[in-house]
Amino acid sequence: YPAILSIAVVPVGLTRFRENLFPLRDFTSKEAFEVIKLIQNFQKYNLRKFGKRLVFAADEFYEKASLNFPSYKTYEDFAQWENGVGMVSLLRHQIRCYKKRLPGKLLKRRHVTIVTGFSGYQILANELAFMKDIENLRLGIKAVKNSFFGESVTVAGLITGTDIISQLKDEDLGDEVLIPSVMVNEGKFLDDVTVEQVSKNLNTPFKVVPVNGKALLNSIINIRSGGRTWDLQQP
């Protein structure tokens, strides 16, 4: 520092494509806890010396250690957000801010499904549980198993279109399916299947949603009735 502005500590990603490679294994829960404690000690030192934490643990470590995620304030400017550092805390904070502005009733019935990985499933299920109280809204959350890269890969950003099609083809997905923007690049999943192809195979419109609380909540309740669209303003 200051030549290095931030450091992300991320657990190794293990896919099924590991033939003839150096043997690696995932972290245990105890090891993940030890990693977090080590990083927290470095953060305290860096705060005293530099005035910023500098090093951050990926969200996966907190999940593996079964620990509560830190406050969104501890991630400072979220410099490592795209590496999965602080995503959960920021999204959770945004949802809790914006949910106060949601209507208690939709003007038309709406059934929408969110598709995510197993890492994000329980987080979204917990944070969006309050939406069951919104009249005329039916919200489903589907976790897709990663058969393409291997079941140990649980993040939403590595889910493929082929897995979505094969696992959700017999599901009632409602009026629209929402997927996070980290799943696709220029309209394609990692297996080169397009969003349009998945939508056509499942006979349901798909919408790519930015990974932030405002965009997610707006997309869930965004229905037009009598020319009106619900829109959540900055709190």
Written overview of the protein:
This protein has 235 residues and is of the alpha/beta class. The protein has two domains: 7-85, no CATH class; 103-229, Rossmann fold, CATH 3.40.50. The chain is 32% helix and 17% strand. It contains seven helices and eight strands; from the N terminus they run βαβααβαβαβαβαββ. It has helices spanning 29-50, 59-64, 87-98, 118-127, 161-168, 195-202, 213-221, and strands at residues 7-9, 55-57, 105-116, 135-143, 176-180, 206-209, 224-225, 228-229. A four-stranded parallel beta sheet has the order 4-3-5-6, sandwiched between helices. Strands 1-2 form a two-stranded parallel sheet. Strand 1 (7-9), helix 1 (29-50) and strand 2 (55-57) form a beta-alpha-beta unit. Helix 5 (161-168) packs parallel to helix 6. The longest helix has 22 residues, at 29-50. It starts with 6 loop residues before the first strand and ends in a 6-residue tail after the last strand. Residues 223-235 have low confidence and may be disordered.
Features:
Rossmann fold, 2 domains, four-stranded parallel sheet, 235 residues, 8 strands, two-stranded parallel ribbon
How is the largest sheet built, in terms of strand order? 4-3-5-6
CATH class (first level) name of the largest domain: Alpha Beta
Unreliable stretches: 223-235
Order of helices and strands: EHEHHEHEHEHEHEE
**SS-based structural class?**
alpha/beta
Overall mean pLDDT: 91
The total strand number stands at 8
- Tally of contiguous helical segments: 7
CATH architecture of the largest domain: 3-Layer(aba) Sandwich
